[in-house]
Structure to design on (619 residues):
């Protein structure tokens, strides 16, 4: 390097000090750019794993280690990249690609979280508050059109997996390997983990009543107390059976309906905004 | 105790204290005076070093260290890839065989931002605190941090370019790291976000290795480019708050690099390879204030100096608790 005229020691020290200030300011300034995606409100659209505190607390509490990613049996959780700013390394779910279907039963991601960013008080899927499903385009809905489903829900190349308990309770199955034959599409209701939970509990209760003459003792929340989604019959007047999905207040926002919907794009999407703004990590 | 305080002062960016000749013990002063006397030995050493420069011997400890660093990071990757659940998570926080571990700086950022500590985080933090206190200095940096390894490799390129006059080495004030540490702590407290994690090359690299690459790697690449062309090892030397956190924890460690004045002939080979040469100021001719000196907390225990020293003046030492209470001149401190 070409040398300029030699500087006096005091001048050199001054330059070094100023350069160091610039370095400090530069690094701190660069890190604060991470604020931009947060203030843009974009992060509040993110679907976070079960138990996630409201967005501000969640970003503060998450230590960005990805242990939740590692334990999820359907690999629904992925970590955000640097374009999420302060949200880099924070987990989120792309429900259309792979929803959280509670295959793990015990909310493994919550158990894995070392900092309580996923609230530890939560124990059952019905307590989850990830968001709420919205029927955004009923006209595209197969059931509204009176159509059924023959074959796979999302095509042969779809990578997503679901728990088909009747096939294998412990190993989630690829959706692409599980064809349907339905006269009228009801996949969003049929695959809803809350609805499956309610039906399962009812079956168990029935069995116990028959064999023991009493129902099982359960912890609060173990059985979903409210329905999440149902089908309302539409009066078309043309003789064709038509139905439309209706979201009920037991919906936890897991995203399975969004994932399984055969229409392209999905008729149902998860709206996480209100949960992201104000959730305490679980339903009251 | 004064050794620890001086070591922390240098860690925070202060210049190493120079002890005046007249304040040194008589035997030390005498040794310094005689040092230049052994002309034959010094000539022989010079010849040996010239030979070494032409035929560099393998740096065995460095290779061992790289192997350890790569193994630790690989264990994270393989543990997830093969689902063996041995070391789950990333360097920011993990579980080893089910037992919580948390990076101290990441944990601090979370505590400052979230203002609430769950028991698992406390367990992880304590475990890691004890672990790195035992290892001493900034041993996390050179033995575990993946950015350190990349920076070590690009440093070779930097030195090559410097030798051809194609790169600068801007020297910053080492206090910048302390300012940044305080700034990031204050930012986490004030904004409620783990601001430092946004830029932490350690976290970014660890996650990229385990969960796949992303655009965050561009930031790491920019840092490396800055180091290659403008300032040798700048991030580790002048900026990284993780290093400072571990330095503070390791300041009182029983594990140190130990300097023995009688064995030293002041060739300065150690300072050439050192990431933090200020910790080796004591090896400069006439500087050592005692026969035996422990190298300070900013030392990353990379052991390159131990490898490179031609006369065995630098060695690894593990002290019992009793030795920790011994002061620099070798006598026990009494009230």
């Amino acid at each position: 390097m070409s040398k300029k005229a030699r500087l006096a020691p005091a001048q050199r020290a001054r330059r070094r000090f100023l350069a160091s200030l610039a370095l400090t300011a530069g690094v701190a300034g660069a890190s604060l750019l991470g604020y931009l995606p947060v203030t843009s409100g974009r992060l509040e659209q993110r679907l976070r794993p079960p138990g996630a505190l409201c967005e501000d607390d969640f970003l503060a509490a998450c230590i960005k280690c990805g242990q939740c990613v590692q334990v999820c049996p359907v690999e629904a959780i992925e970590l955000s990249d640097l374009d999420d700013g302060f949200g880099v390394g924070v987990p989120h779910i792309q429900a259309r690609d792979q929803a959280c279907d509670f295959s793990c039963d015990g909310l493994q991601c919550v158990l894995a979280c070392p900092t309580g960013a996923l609230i530890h008080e939560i124990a059952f899927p019905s307590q989850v508050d990830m968001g709420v499903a919205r029927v955004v385009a009923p006209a595209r809905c197969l059931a509204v059109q009176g159509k059924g489903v023959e074959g796979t829900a999302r095509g042969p190349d779809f990578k997503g997996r679901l728990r088909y308990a009747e096939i294998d309770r412990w190993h989630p199955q690829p959706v692409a390997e599980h064809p349907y034959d339905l006269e009228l599409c009801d996949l969003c209701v049929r695959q809803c983990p809350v609805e499956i939970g309610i039906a399962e509990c009812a079956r168990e209760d029935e069995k116990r009543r028959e064999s023991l003459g009493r129902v099982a003792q359960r912890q609060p929340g173990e059985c979903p107390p409210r329905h999440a989604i149902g089908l309302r019959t539409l009066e078309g007047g043309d003789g064709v059976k038509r139905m439309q999905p209706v979201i009920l207040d037991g919906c936890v926002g897991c995203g399975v309906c969004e994932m399984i919907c055969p229409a392209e794009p999905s008729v149902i999407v998860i709206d996480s905004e209100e949960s992201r703004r104000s959730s305490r990590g679980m339903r009251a | 105790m004064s050794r620890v305080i001086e070591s922390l002062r240098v860690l925070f960016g202060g210049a190493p204290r120079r002890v005046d000749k007249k304040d040194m013990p008589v035997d030390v002063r005498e040794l310094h005076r005689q040092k230049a006397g052994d002309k034959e030995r010094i000539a022989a050493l010079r010849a040996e070093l010239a030979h070494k420069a032409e035929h560099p011997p393998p740096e065995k400890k460095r290779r061992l260290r790289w192997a350890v660093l790569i193994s630790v990071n690989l264990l994270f990757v393989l543990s997830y890839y093969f689902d063996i659940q041995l070391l789950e998570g990333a360097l920011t926080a993990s579980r080893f065989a089910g037992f919580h571990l948390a990076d101290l700086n990441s944990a601090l950022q979370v505590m400052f931002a979230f203002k609430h500590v769950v028991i698992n985080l406390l367990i992880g933090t304590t475990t890691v605190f004890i672990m790195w206190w035992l290892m001493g200095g900034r041993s996390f940096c050179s033995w575990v941090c993946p950015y350190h390894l990349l920076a070590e490799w690009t440093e070779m390129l930097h030195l090559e370019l410097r030798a051809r006059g194609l790169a600068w080495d801007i020297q910053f004030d080492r206090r910048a790291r302390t300012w940044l540490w305080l700034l990031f702590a204050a930012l986490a407290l004030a904004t409620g976000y783990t601001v430092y994690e946004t830029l932490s090359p350690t976290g970014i690299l660890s996650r990229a290795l385990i969960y796949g690459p992303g655009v965050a790697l561009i930031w790491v690449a920019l840092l490396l480019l800055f180091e290659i062309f403008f300032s040798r090892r700048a991030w580790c030397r002048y900026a990284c708050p993780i290093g400072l956190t571990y330095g503070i924890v390791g300041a009182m460690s029983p594990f140190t690099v130990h300097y023995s004045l009688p064995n030293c002939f002041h060739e300065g080979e150690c300072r050439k390879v050192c990431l933090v040469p200020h910790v080796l100021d004591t090896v400069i001719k006439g500087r050592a204030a005692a026969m035996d000196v422990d190298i300070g907390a900013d030392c990353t225990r990379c052991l390159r100096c131990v490898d490179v020293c031609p006369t065995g003046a630098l060695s690894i030492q593990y002290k019992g608790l009793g030795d920790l209470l011994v002061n620099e001149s070798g006598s026990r401190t009494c009230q």
Q: What stands out?
A: Residues 327-335 of chain B have pLDDT under 50 and may be disordered. Chain B has two domains: 2-57+254-324, 61-248. Residues 60-81 of chain B form the longest helix (22 residues). The longest strand of chain B covers residues 255-260.
